[in-house]
Design brief:
By secondary structure, the chain is α+β, with helices and mostly antiparallel strands. The protein has a single domain, classed as Alpha-Beta Plaits (2-Layer Sandwich). The protein has three helices and four strands. It has helices at residues 12-24, 64-74, 92-101; strands at 2-9, 30-43, 46-60, 83-86. Strands 2-3-1-4 form a four-stranded antiparallel beta sheet. The chain starts with a strand and ends with a helix. 27% of the residues are buried.
Length: 104
């Protein structure tokens, strides 16, 4: 089973550093960084709008727990956004590559 993992970071530099670390450690097959998004949310009863960077990683069910730990370690947000979405369908070849790329 493969997952898309979404996480926002306070800067593009921080997101890129995380992407490189998780792919190098084989916690994710691939990580894409979208450098500038605007996020609107409430935090401590205040409406906030922040410019953030979004990282989208592709991983496996087996590697997800270690990936989550590493994102938490590398993310400077007090409560990092980490959302995993099961990939219901996709190219058979691509999903096989994700499995292979995430093996230790």
């Amino acid at each position: 089973m493969a997952f898309l993992v979404l996480s926002t970071f306070s800067s593009q530099k921080e997101a890129q550093k995380c992407a490189e670390k998780i792919v190098s450690a084989r916690l994710a097959a691939c990580a894409s960084v979208i450098p500038q998004i605007n996020s609107t949310y409430t935090w401590k009863n205040k409406l906030c709008v922040s410019c953030e960077s979004l990282m989208i990683a592709k991983t496996t069910e087996k590697r997800y727990p270690a990936l989550e730990r590493e994102i938490k370690r590398l993310n400077s947000n007090e409560v990092p956004e980490i959302i995993a979405v099961k990939i219901a369908r996709g190219s058979k070849e691509y999903l096989a590559w994700v499995e292979t790329a995430c093996k230790k």
